[in-house]
Write a structure and sequence with these properties.
Length: 221
């Protein structure tokens, strides 16, 4: 019998917040600064999921270059621009504010584990969900990115939780695999984000939900 879910760890981009247009905006600004062509929103949708370094590398590769120094220069400009101005075009998905408030009021412990650079992730969560998340962990030096489970397990432990009391929620196969790798009680895929339901099912999601309120039913309590 499954233990009661007391902890929920969320991905950020494509799960809590719609950030695709913001990411594309800042990425194209960095590409243009280095004389490279802009990419389309659909390109960003495909390139995202494994951290900013992979995102920028894939965009620069699409522009016809695999020069590592160029990738790092574009990455630095992208991160600087995004961290300075992370809010334009960004908003919570439908039903997310109500979901987070409901979980918080139930006493569910909430955390974020994202491959987005850590400073930007913390700014976004504090802006949109002030005081609701106990821990926010983003990509930074020395931390393995998802789907490696180490950081998710570390922050879950810091919150006082165990995997069998935890649901991991995200919109890509990377998130589903993170939940599986940490042996969470539930690895939940959301269909409203950057990937389709087929990818989530193929990755082994325990559940795929189409709207935020469905998560309340899965968690119970």
């Amino acid at each position: 019998m499954q233990e009661k879910i007391k902890y929920v760890l969320f991905d950020l981009d494509g799960t809590l917040l719609s950030t695709l247009d913001t990411i594309t905006h800042h990425l194209n600004g960095a590409l243009k600064k280095h004389g490279l062509d802009c990419i389309e929103v659909d390109d960003t949708r495909r390139f995202i999921g494994n951290g900013a370094r992979k995102l920028v590398g894939r965009a620069v590769n699409k522009c016809g270059s695999n020069d590592e120094s160029l990738i790092l220069d574009v990455l630095a400009d992208y991160n600087e621009a995004y961290d300075r101005d992370p809010l334009p075009h960004t908003h919570p998905y439908e039903g997310i504010n109500e979901l987070i408030l409901n979980l918080f009021e139930r006493g569910i412990h909430l955390g974020v584990v994202t491959n987005k650079p850590d400073p930007t992730a913390k700014k976004l969560i504090e802006h949109f969900f002030p005081g609701k998340f106990e821990v926010v962990s983003g990509g930074r030096a020395g931390i393995e990115l998802k789907p490696d489970p180490k950081e998710a397990l570390s922050i879950l432990s810091a919150m006082g939780g165990r995997p069998l009391e935890c649901a991991f929620v995200g919109d890509t196969s990377v998130d589903v695999l993170t939940g599986k790798n940490m042996q969470a009680a539930l690895s939940v895929g959301v269909s409203w984000g950057f990937r389709d339901a087929d990818e989530l099912v193929s990755a082994g999601a325990d559940e795929v939900i189409d709207n935020a309120s469905e998560l309340l039913g899965l968690i119970g309590g």
